[in-house]
């Protein structure tokens, strides 16, 4: 499951391997909609953006994650971030997570295209046998978006994480298996076409 991060380019967005130079644009994207105020997301507050970025890069150094900045192809602005994470090289599994988009980029086809780019890379280049998605029990919008992609709900990990504010999070787990990928890919391409691409 070796992979050297490169730009992943679609019609709407380009996923760029995250680096320190992205910091000012990541901070601006997170401010679009003040997304850090949603208690069930991992979006960095302006004063925490540098720490958030350093943690992402540390995870990459430890080969636990591959973080990306999401750039809008028309405006050329960074509009969010996503990453491969919880990478299990031996068992050829990973999670797509830490995903967030500026408010102005939501419900625009961006998430569909990002997931198509990431899943194509995971299954067709990295040889994954399963890709997971995890989200907070209270993040109903995220659950609906994951189900819309074609992922199946595996279950709920009760009292799974203690969050920085002390809240104990229940985590909803979804996955797509290698043998399901052709159908999921066709579904994502169909959804992408609904946005006129």
Features:
Acyl_CoA_acyltransferase; 197 residues; GNAT family N-acetyltransferase; eight-stranded mixed beta sheet; alpha+beta; GNAT_dom
* Distinct helical segment count: 5
Q: What separation lies between the terminal Cα atoms?
A: 31 Å
Judged by helices, strands and strand pairing, the structural class is alpha+beta
* Strand element count: 8
The side-by-side strand order for the widest beta sheet comes to: 1-2-3-4-5-6-8-7
Q: What is the subunit organization of this protein?
A: single chain
Shape label: globular
Give the biggest sheet. 8 strands, mixed
SSE ordering: EEHHEEEHEHEEH
Alpha carbon gyration radius: 16 Å
Helix content: 25-40%
- Give the low-confidence spans: none
Beta-strand percentage range = 25-35%
On the 0 to 100 scale, the average pLDDT is 90
Pfam family, one: Acetyltransf_3
Domain N-acetyltransferase: 24-179
InterPro entries: Acyl_CoA_acyltransferase, GNAT_dom
Protein name: GNAT family N-acetyltransferase
Write the layout of secondary structure elements.
Blueprint: E1 8-9, E2 13-17, H1 23-31, H2 49-61, E3 66-72, E4 78-88, E5 93-101, H3 110-125, E6 130-136, H4 140-149, E7 152-162, E8 168-177, H5 181-194
Parallel strand pairs: 5-6
Antiparallel strand pairs: 1-2, 2-3, 3-4, 4-5, 6-8, 7-8
InterPro entries: Acyl_CoA_acyltransferase, GNAT_dom
Protein name: GNAT family N-acetyltransferase
Pfam families: Acetyltransf_3
């Amino acid at each position: 499951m070796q992979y050297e991060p490169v730009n992943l380019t679609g019609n709407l967005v380009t996923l760029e391997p995250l680096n320190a130079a992205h910091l000012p644009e990541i901070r601006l994207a997170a401010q679009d909609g003040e997304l850090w105020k949603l208690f069930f997301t991992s979006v960095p507050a302006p004063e925490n953006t540098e720490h958030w970025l350093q943690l992402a890069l540390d995870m990459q150094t430890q080969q636990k994650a591959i973080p990306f900045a999401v750039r809008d192809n028309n405006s050329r602005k960074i509009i969010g971030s996503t990453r491969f994470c919880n990478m299990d090289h031996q068992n050829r599994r990973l999670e797509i997570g830490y995903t967030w988009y500026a408010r102005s980029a939501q419900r625009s086809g961006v998430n569909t295209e990002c997931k198509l780019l990431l899943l194509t890379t995971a299954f067709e280049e990295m040889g994954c046998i399963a890709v997971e998605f995890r989200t907070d029990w209270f993040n109903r919008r995220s659950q609906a978006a994951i189900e819309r992609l074609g992922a199946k709900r595996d279950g709920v990990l009760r009292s799974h994480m203690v969050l920085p504010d002390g809240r104990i999070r229940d985590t909803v787990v979804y996955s797509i298996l290698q043998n399901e990928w052709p159908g999921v890919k066709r579904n994502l391409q169909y959804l992408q076409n609904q946005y006129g691409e």
